[in-house]
Task: structure prediction
Amino acid sequence: MKVGVLVFNTDRTVKGDASKLRGYISKRFKEYPILHHHVENGYLYTYPRVQYKIIERTPIILGIEEGADVLKIISDDIRELRIGNSKYKVKSIQMTVLEADFGVCKEQLKYKFLTPWLALNQNNYEKYKGLDRRERKKLLNRILIGNILSMCKGLNYVVMNRLKVRSRLMSEVVEFKGIRMIGFRGEFTVNFNIPDFFGIGKGVSHGFGTVKRA
Result:
């Protein structure tokens, strides 16, 4: 699977969240719907081929398949970033494009969440609150498997084997689209190759649920 990672070196430390980075880039390059997932008739409901991250105060944009091609096109035209009310000069850009492994594998691979994973919606949050610690962990593992399967469906990859997940997660309060909700950080193992910086769960185009091999 073709994956492109665009890393920005700015003149000062970036403050703000990835949704504001997404907002700036999508408005700056409106001619590419893949950057903002909006089309004439509404919204593209599929796994985002372009995802925005701010990791350790560094702006990063991930492009998958055709998303990687678009990142290559626009990268030369980005001289600054406007994130919230702040403007940052782009001193340099590192663009990496590679063929990454994606899919079921025999061994259990270990990953960590670089940004909070938004696992719960309104329905399963109520269920989660009523469970003990052991049952909560089982529920989160099932949701994690479901999120990986949803990602595969959006990327036209058919999973032929059973996925096995183990996790060690801690909850934290996060804000997404102005709403406070529970997110999770920590580590998990699964018999599946997930390229670095791919997002899992809700809000992945806004930087949530970003994973990396641990």
The first strand starts at residue 2 and ends at 10.
